[in-house]
Design brief:
Blueprint lengths: L1 H19 L7 E7 L6 H11 L9 E7 L1 E5 L5 E4 L13 E6 L3 E7 L1
Parallel strand pairs: 1-2
Antiparallel strand pairs: 1-6, 3-4, 3-5
Length: 112
């Protein structure tokens, strides 16, 4: 379960940055998780619940923004939502030429 190591790294990253600014606690953390990122958002959220206690983030509100996958069709250039990398165009049923969104996994912001 790589979500546990990702949760640990997010806590370490935010803690390190908060301490650089001499913060005693973190109030809020916002994280984006794309549906095509390879990170299971529910498992990541559960992992955070395990690693956050007894850290500078213990009382922080953690907001996870789930981003849908997006693709652009190779045939008709339609942009559409994707649940999986191999989803086809809803108009012409071609595979997308490129994934244009949903691969995100990042800490967007945090408030101390």
């Amino acid at each position: 379960m790589h979500e546990f190591s990702l949760a640990t790294e997010v806590v370490n990253l935010v803690s390190r940055e908060a301490k650089k600014n001499k913060a005693q606690s973190v109030e809020e953390v916002t994280i984006e998780v794309g549906s095509l990122s390879g990170v299971e958002a529910d498992a990541f959220e559960s992992a955070l619940e395990l690693v956050v206690p007894d850290t500078i983030l213990a009382k922080a509100q953690i907001i996870i923004i789930r981003k849908k996958g997006r693709g652009r069709c190779i045939s008709c250039e339609l942009e559409f939502d994707m649940d999986q990398r191999m989803d086809t165009c809803p108009d012409c049923f071609s595979f997308p030429s490129e994934v244009t969104g949903g691969e995100e996994f990042r800490v967007v912001s945090f408030t101390v």
